[in-house]
Structures are given as C-alpha cells and as structure tokens.
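Practice problem 4.
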C-alpha cells in the first residue's frame, strides 16, 4: 500500500516482547525498564491476526524483534505459523545469547535470516556494554547459525564514541574471514538522555577509517527494484567473504525511502521510529472489532506516516529528537 508520499509500505517489524536478558547501555537504564504486564502483551493469535490483515494491504516482509524475541515462550511455534503465511521474507533480530540453542529450531520454523546485535569483540568490553553478557555465548551462536544454513548472517554494531568506535576495523576485518555482513548503525536518540552528541559517531567517519586499510567497493543491494533491501549502504573489501553495511539515520536521513511499520508488543502500531504516536490495535481487538475495522486502523497508520522526522509538530530540525519510549519497548 502506498502512503500519502507514494512510498510502498511493505515491511512490518513485530516486537513479541519487551523483555530482554541483557541491559545494553544505549537501550535501557541500568535498573531496567518498567515491564509491560503479561495481560497487556499481545497474544500470538492477536499478532497473527494483525499480520494477516497487513499482508492483504501489501506487507511482504516481516521481522520479529523484542526486547529479545527468543526469551518469549512459544516463539518457535509462532515463527512457524508466521512463515506459513507465505511472506517473501521472515527474519529475526536477536542479541545472540540464546542463538546456539534456537538456531536450528527457528531455521526449521521458516526463518530465512537472522540479525545479531553485537557491539564489541572484546569480552570485557562486551560485558560492560551489555551489563553482564558473555561474548563467547554469542560467538557460539553465530557459528551454529552458520552451520544450520542461515545466510546472510548480519551483525548489527551500534557505534558509541569513546566506547567501541575503536573496534570498527576489527569488525571490518571479520568480513575477510567470515561470510557475515557487518552493519554499522549510528546511535539514535531513543528514550531517556542517551544518544547525546558527545557519543555520536557518523558512519562517514567510520567509512573514512576503514578506507585507510582497504578499498570499500559498493555492493548491489539486489532488491529487484523494490524497496526491500533496507537503508544500508553496502560495500565489500578486496577478497572479503562478507560485506559491510552502513545504516545512517542521522548523517544520511532515509525517511524519504522508509517502507516500514512497527507493531509493539503491547499492540501499538507505529509509523515512525523517531516520532511518538501510535495507533492502538489491542484495545479495539479485545473490544470485539471486525477485521475490516482493524484494516481501517492499519490504513490510518500508513496514511499518517510523516514525510520525515523533521516534519512532525511545530517545525524545525527534528533529526536528533528523542523518542520518549525506550528502544526495548518499541522493538527497534
């Protein structure tokens, strides 16, 4: 379905839980966040109902997120039901802590791709960033994902100045050995007081650093003309097995090409990650609304999608605006 700016909205991100087994410093406060009550989380059946209606409106790609999606009981069965709906692409984003155990089951369930959030290759630093995570567990999960046939395996790296930006070259060199796609993601101002200018590193800066040690050759996104490949600018180093992607929401705003909606775990449908404002789907569903009513609400969300972050509200540059909800509650 086209929105009012003629963008083809064909991608839905579905958060199945706001719970996570890590406490990453850029995602949530040290003390954690107030968790949504069990009865306030959408059931899998409710999620599938929304997804089926969205599919009729043109959604062809679904990504399952969290929190950490693999901590929710029954997620493998849900992924199987989702895959059987016949989407062009069903993928999952995980922190990798449980991936060694779940790689084979979710592959059998029909998940075609996994993205693993990993912000350091140094065990001690990883433990600090995640407030207690075990890097070796994630690395075993990546190996297992490769063994069971996931391809490509994408690794998401949120770069924070003075914290992990010095590891850009180490991550880039990893693509020489492994068929991974390393994706550097600029720090976004989501929730609380995080994401200040002092922590921000532009991907242009990272590209310049990596370019000193090897030529970055542009890689065709291979989307067949449809806007399904996402916002990453992709490159490959000479002789590399993998690729390097740069997702730059701050330095290279891609709102003009945004094709996605986000369904939060508590039933809010968001048309924009950075601008607060959700359409409640849970209330109407539990109030007995028809599929036609839900379709109208999804259409309303699509047509309310702003041209860009800066166009919402009274005007001015909103490119660094802080969204009030934590990333763990939105689903990324």
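Answer key:
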């Amino acid at each position: 379905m086209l929105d009012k700016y003629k963008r083809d909205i064909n991608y839905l991100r579905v958060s199945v839980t706001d719970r996570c087994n890590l406490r990453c410093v850029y995602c949530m406060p040290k003390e954690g966040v107030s968790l949504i009550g069990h009865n306030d989380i959408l059931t899998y059946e409710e999620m599938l109902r929304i997804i089926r209606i969205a599919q009729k409106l043109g959604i062809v790609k679904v990504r399952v997120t969290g929190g950490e999606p693999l901590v929710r009981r029954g997620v493998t069965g849900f992924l199987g039901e989702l895959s059987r709906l016949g989407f062009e692409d069903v993928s999952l984003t995980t922190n990798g802590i449980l991936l060694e155990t779940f790689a084979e089951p979710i592959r059998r369930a029909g998940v075609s791709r996994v993205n693993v959030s990993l912000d350091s290759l140094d065990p001690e630093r990883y433990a600090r960033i995640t407030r207690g995570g075990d890097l070796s567990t994630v690395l075993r999960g990546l190996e297992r994902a490769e063994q069971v046939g996931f391809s490509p395996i994408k690794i998401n790296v949120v770069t924070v100045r003075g914290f992990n930006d010095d590891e850009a070259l180490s991550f880039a060199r990893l693509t020489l050995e492994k068929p991974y796609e390393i994706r550097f993601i600029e720090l976004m101002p989501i929730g609380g007081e995080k994401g200040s200018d002092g922590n921000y590193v532009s991907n242009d800066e990272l590209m310049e650093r990596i370019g000193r040690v090897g030529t970055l050759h542009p890689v065709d996104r291979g989307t067949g003309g449809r806007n399904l490949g996402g916002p990453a600018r992709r490159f490959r180093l000479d002789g590399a097995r993998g690729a390097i992607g740069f997702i730059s929401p701050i330095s290279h705003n891609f709102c003009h090409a945004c094709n996605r909606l986000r369904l939060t775990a508590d039933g809010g449908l968001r048309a924009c990650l950075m601008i607060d404002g959700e359409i409640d789907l849970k209330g109407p569903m539990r109030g007995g609304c028809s599929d036609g009513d839900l379709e109208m609400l999804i259409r309303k969300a699509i047509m309310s999608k702003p041209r860009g972050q800066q166009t919402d509200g009274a005007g001015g540059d909103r490119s660094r605006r802080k969204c009030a909800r934590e990333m763990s509650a939105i689903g990324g």
